[in-house]
Fold:
Amino acid sequence: MLHAVIMAGGSGTRFWPASRKDRPKQFLQLAADRPLLRLTYERLAPMVPPERIWVVTASSTVELTREILPELPSGNVLGEPVGRDTAACVGFAAEVLRAYDPGAVCLVLAADHIIGDEDQFRQAMIAGARQVQENGGLLTFGLRPTGPETGFGYLQVGDVCRTIDGYQVHTLSRFVEKPDVVTAQGYLDQGNFLWNSGMFAWKAEDLLSEIERQLPLLAEGLHRIGVAQGTGNEAAVLAEVYPNLPRISVDFGIMENAAVRWTVPVSFPWSDVGSWPALREVLTPDDAGNVSRGRAVVLDSGRNVIVSEGPVVSLIGVEDLVVVATPDAVLVVPADQAQKVKAVVEELESRGWDDVL
Structure:
């Protein structure tokens, strides 16, 4: 009974002005003619039936999620009244799944990743699911690094304990935070570090046991939510309990000190599409290195990222820019400063310009 949980609750502020409160990043058509969330579902569909695919999203985007994924039963879209970070998100899903299927084995994935080789992806996911089904514990999938990337956390792998369908299962020695470039190069040279992909596998029961051991306040609230399943009082309990759950990430709050933890190294092409320049990794460039979605005219310009949701965008004689145009807002920023887009959103909030948020 393999289940898949898609985490789709992020705000996507680095993708303003396309990303808005009522349509954050995971609902955008950034890499194809379908939203990122839809692409994630289609990646899972060959190995998990719709009735065992679950999406955790903000309450405000539940209906949008159901529109994008009409194949899912209505009850498989779980709405968070407020965002309480990923530990609460995965715990919420685990409580619902445990009530639905006490032996549930879960794959847990982000809604906004791009995967290049989907057959290899599915093979790796099944190998990880088999490991936790047969041996318990919590498992994360680690990407073999292709360079000294400073934007990701890293996993230090331990000994190989078994091989499943060609995929090695290692013990997981430790998590490390995003490093500087010298440290990242050192990890690359050592050869026993992986990028932390944010993709997991575990039994719902095993995750909840770890939450109870490490985060008792979170466990107490989640238990109340779980007990309410099937009583008709689910929504009222969720609205009362969820806003008071501790805010902590699954990595820091659960994985880093899990009693039994594993990692499966994978090599399929992957991007977390973390900011506008990441579209260079997933879109086909022209001869000058420009990538675009929507109508754009680019002359004597190189390595630009152009996205338009309507207006024709013209660039002449510029390099390394991100230009995003929507019907009511325009963003222009040097590509190497695109991480600062979040600050624009904060400024818009401070001015009370809610119509463009």
The mean pLDDT is 96.
